[in-house]
Amino acid sequence: MSTQVKFIADNNVGKLARWLRVIGYDTILFKEKDDRSMIEIALKEDRVILTKDNQIGKRRLAMNGKLKVMLIKQDNPKAQLQGTVKALQLNWHFRPFSLCLECNQILIPRSRAEVQNLVPPYVFKTQEQYMECPACHRIYWQGTHWQAMVKELKHLARGC
Ligand SMILES: [Zn+2]
C-alpha cells in the first residue's frame, strides 16, 4: 500500500489514531455516532476506516472493495498500532512527529525567538528546535515526552 495512505479512525480506536499521527499518517478521528457520515468521508477523501465495529466491513460498499475498512481486533492501542503497520505495510519511519497529535495538522517549524514567550523558561533554555500547530497553536519540542515516544516507537517497531 502507498505510503500516502490516510485514515479515519472510529471513536473506539482513538488512541490508535494518536499513534498513527505520531509516525506521521494523516488520521482523522470520527467522533459522531452515525456511521454513514464516517463512510461518506472515507469514500470522499479516500481514507481507510479503522474500527472495532465488525458490522462496517460487512456493508456492500466494503464487500465490493469501494470502501476500505480495517477491523481492529486488539484491545491494547500499541498492539493495534503494530497490527495496523503490519497489515497495511506502513512505514515506522514515515515522517515521525510531523503532525499535531491533537488535530492532525502538519506542524510548522518555529525559531527559538518566535516561541520565547510561548514555552516554559526551562524549555527555552534547553531546546533549540520547535514546531507549532497552525490550528491549535500548541508548541512541540523534543523534550522528555518526545524522547519517551521515540523509545516506545523503536520498541514497537522491533516487535513487528
Ligand atoms: Zn493542533
Q: How would the blueprint of this fold be written?
A:
Blueprint: E1 6-10, H1 14-22, E2 27-30, H2 35-44, E3 47-51, H3 60-63, E4 69-71, H4 77-88, E5 108-110, H5 112-115, H6 121-126, E6 130-132, E7 139-141, H7 144-158
Parallel strand pairs: 1-2, 1-3, 3-4
Antiparallel strand pairs: 5-6, 6-7
The structure holds zinc ion.
Zinc ion is lined by residues 100, 102-103, 105, 133, 135-136, 138.
Features:
single chain; 160 residues; alpha/beta; 7 helices; 16% strand; elongated; binds zinc ion
Overall description:
- 38% of the residues lie in helices and 16% in strands.
- The chain is α/β, with parallel strands linked by helices and 160 residues long.
- Helix 1 links the parallel strand 1 (6-10) and strand 2.
- Helix 1 packs across helix 4.
- The longest helix is centred in the C-terminal third of the chain and has 15 residues, at 144-158.
- The radius of gyration is 17 Å and the shape is elongated.
- The structure holds zinc ion (ZN).
